Amino acid sequence: MGAQSAKRKVKDFELPSCKVVVVVVVVVVVVVVVVVVVVVVVVVVVVVVVVVVVVSSGKLNQENLQKKYHLKHYLFLQECSELFITNLETIIV
User: Fold this and answer.
1) Which residue, 20, 50, 71, 75, could crosslink 16 as a Cys pair with Cβ 3.0–4.6 Å?
2) Tens-of-pLDDT digits for all 93 residues of the chain?
3) How many CB atoms lie within 10 A of CB 35?
4) CA torsion through residues 34, 36, 39, 44, sign
5) Rounded to 5, what percent of the chain is helix, strand, coil?
């Protein structure tokens, strides 16, 4: 009796068919690939945005420094030319 009930339990429990296993494996692989691709795309987009922001802020800082330098240079030249003109006027007079 014990052997028959054991056989009946084994008989009741059927292994999934090969098609079901293949479908489950394919679905799992597709989901994993999609998740990996999405993560890679998000990481690439974040890196590109960070690089663009850093480069553009660096350019802005560089432009500001150049403007300040040119302004100081211009003011220095203006002051020198005014001094030169006053000295020239003094020499002439």
Assistant:
1) 20
2) 455 555 555 556 666 677 888 888 999 999 999 999 999 999 999 988 888 887 777 776 677 767 777 777 778 888 888 888 888 777 776
3) 10
4) negative
5) 90, 0, 10
